[in-house]
Here is the input.
Amino acid sequence: MADKFQAVVIGGGPGGYVCAIRLAQLGFKTACIESRGSLGGTCLNIGCIPSKSLLNLSESFHKAKNFSKIGIEVGEIKLNLQKMMENKDKAVSVLTKGVEFLFKKNKVTYFKGIGKLKSNKEINIIGLDNSQTTIESDNIIISTGSEPVSIPGVEIDEKIIVSSTGALSLKTVPKKMVVVGGGYIGLEMGSVWSRLGSEVHVVEFLDHITPGMDKEISSEFMKILKKQGLKFHLNTKVEKIVKNNNGVRIDTIDKTGKKEELDSDVVLIAVGRKAFTKHLNLEKLGIELDEKKRINVNKKFQTNIENIYAIGDVIQGPMLAHKAEEEGIAVAELIAGQSGHVNYNVIPGVIYTTPEVAAIGDTEEQLIEKNLKYKVGKFPFMANSRAKAIDEPEGFVKILADSTTDKVLGVHLIGPHAGELIAEMAIAMEFGASSEDIARTCHAHPTFSEAVKEAALSVDKRQIHS
Here is the structure.
């Protein structure tokens, strides 16, 4: 007899494991199937967490090399890349084991293997040892995440031609690295290796980096990254990538037709990600996909088979761990008959470079496209006492508010701890705050958050410190 569950989640990433825990909290007999052998998905294992570890460690290395400028005399600074990678791996191990503990605590059954849909209520599990098990469930939630996209004709070997996975585990610092794609992942990993000593070139097909970001922030971001030593090739397409005895050659062509060859030790392909659904057997069950091969769902996250749901990177929307988590909790509560929801207008995005970049809500370009009238409030960190005191004065806060109602429509930050500051704005926007509400809220001094208050004051041109 097959084991029977009330709910089974396929995929143990941020969306999947959170969904499984919430289902268990709500009283469902729950199981989670994960093929990686460790929980946490791309985020914990080969994404968000290891990259943030390396971003932090590389920034510490960079700061240490410049200590003498601020009156701290030290000896010769050396990079021990192996120890740095061990530190990164330790952080990953601790967190993935932590999720396993949470499963035990909440009595979630954990299957290590690939889950394949056999019917709308049966799942076949191919274990890591190739054993086969079939389980049954009243409800099935697909949360199998995403995988990197490559360029046609280019095979990623994770040694010389790498995705973000390989870029997180290089054995030596490449003298030169070419990053194909000027989005979040490429710029974060480019920043890591630039700080550790690589000459980093970024090739971007568009005329700006970070597609979809507010153009003013994007422009400022690129200026800062250029000052840090990153080199940009905009309006440029990669035609061919060829391995050779020296590493790899990247053939490019810009929009004027000018061709250029870039020789590099390593090339990072960071042109996006796609839904990972290849082992699920979706075709057999007739589960509908969209034109990008993502699973179609309704407002309750149901596929066209009502007891099969999907969340996270396999459905429409930004491929962000926190978006998947929100959907995981929402679908669990909906299955339990509660009113779970996700406000897609208030999902923050963060780039963890130095300085950090964060955004929520509409950009100026989107407001213009929607023909909405708006006011802009801006405040530079150059005029923020905390930022000046610790010599991190780059960037600014930008608040967009409705011209008539003063409701905050979008917030865009580039500067110190932007990823933390955006949380205040997420709460404000979730409750429909006006810029006046933020401006009249007392912010501690001296803090970076005062820049948010001043930007809110600036919406009505009454900022104090600039």
